[in-house]
Design goal:
- The protein is an alpha+beta fold and 175 residues long.
- It has helices at residues 11-26, 34-43, 45-53, 104-119, 133-141; strands at residues 2-5, 57-64, 67-75, 87-95, 123-129, 145-151, 163-170.
- It is built from 5 helices and 7 strands.
- It has a 7-stranded mixed sheet with strand order 1-2-3-4-5-7-6, sandwiched between helices.
- The radius of gyration is 16 Å and the shape is globular.
């Protein structure tokens, strides 16, 4: 397995894995027209290029058996009300459905945490749909704990899925 930082020259590969991994997992979370809207907002060529040019945003390909099977996205700054001194937000982590349950997500997140600890990051935050009990349990097994509630405010997103839990993991920083 490999966690490879995406470069600007790989924007089309990144767009493909982002779109595929998200759409195959979450197509049923949206009302009519919503999935297409979201994919354009988050994974258009323009958005991905802008994110890759932003030094506070990083994408990583999750590779398994020499194939891109998922991705993750982190931000080192945020406009939220969270304490962000030496903190990072895991904005996205998605795997192709056929790769779930193989330990790939656990490995990828563990590898990311090692990288962040080496950089001196103190906390890793994420948000997860509060009814997604499998994902919450997954994060808890990796040492994340509940921090606070928040809410998704995307148009077209199903109302019953808008509740979110913020979770945090304290990191063992080397700095």
């Amino acid at each position: 397995m490999n966690l490879k930082k995406a470069s600007a020259t790989e924007y089309m590969d990144l767009k493909k894995i982002c779109t595929d991994a998200y759409a195959l997992n979450f197509h049923d979370h949206w009302n009519e027209g919503g999935l297409e809207w979201y994919l354009e907002q988050e994974f258009s060529v323009e958005r991905i290029m802008a994110d890759l040019a932003d030094d506070t945003t990083e994408y990583f390909f999750i590779e398994h058996k020499l194939k891109q099977v998922g991705f993750l996205k982190i931000k080192t700054t945020s406009s939220t009300d969270l304490p962000f001194d030496h903190s990072v937000v895991l904005e996205k982590i998605y795997l192709l459905p056929e790769c779930k349950g193989l330990g790939i997500g656990k490995w990828a997140l563990g590898t990311l945490i090692e990288k962040l600890e080496a950089r001196g990051t103190k906390k890793l935050f994420l948000a997860v749909i509060d009814t997604n009990l499998n994902a919450i349990a997954f994060y808890e097994k990796l040492g994340f704990s509940y921090h606070s509630k928040t809410r998704l405010e995307f148009p077209y997103f199903k109302e019953e899925l808008k509740g979110m839990h913020r979770m945090v993991k304290e990191l063992n920083s080397n700095k």
